[in-house]
């Protein structure tokens, strides 16, 4: 084979190898390049769907605080400023938005705005929970909003009502152990079991349960307020007398 032909063959082989390596690299990295600024609402919602459906916290629906909603839902975008969302704690980014007023911010959060889907993609959130999240994030950015009280118009009083809030907490958290008396927990409706524990008084029972005892974690794993947790204990006690 002539020297000129050998050179042509070698050049062809090198070009082939370079192209092959480039194609393999392109194939291996395909699907990983995402332009956050042009993500559609559908794309953002798809990413948030698993979070929005189940991870806002263990608190009963409608009773999650702004912080709980932020940590469970909103931080997926707002922690890093994904898709143009104002980054949590960034006063410069939040300032112009806060200037537009509470109503405008809430409207955008409830119904969606730009790349953000309605309620951040978490359709199980109540309107008040979304408003609490707006207040929590806005305040971290320099606002002075007030979160809607948990329990509705009645505020703290409604939040501490054992028959309403206490039952919701029991049904969503406490039932896991107290329905069957699991791990030594006093069984719901068992008068003898509860009477023995109530001898030191309700306040002492609440204090012990809040800190956790034996197999029971602090507040039974409930992440809401102490007042709400107390209402769950009162609900169980009231139904075990």
TrEMBL record:
Keywords recorded for this protein, A-Z: Electron transport, Heme, Iron, Membrane, Metal-binding, Transmembrane, Transmembrane helix, Transport
Record-linked Pfam families: Cytochrome_CBB3
Cytochrome c domain location: 61-141, 161-240
Coiled coil: none
InterPro entries (UniProt xref): Cyt_c-like_dom, Cyt_c-like_dom_sf, Cyt_CIE
Transmembrane segments: 6-25
PROSITE patterns according to UniProt: CYTC
Gene3D superfamilies: Cytochrome c-like domain
Protein name per its UniProtKB record: C-type cytochrome
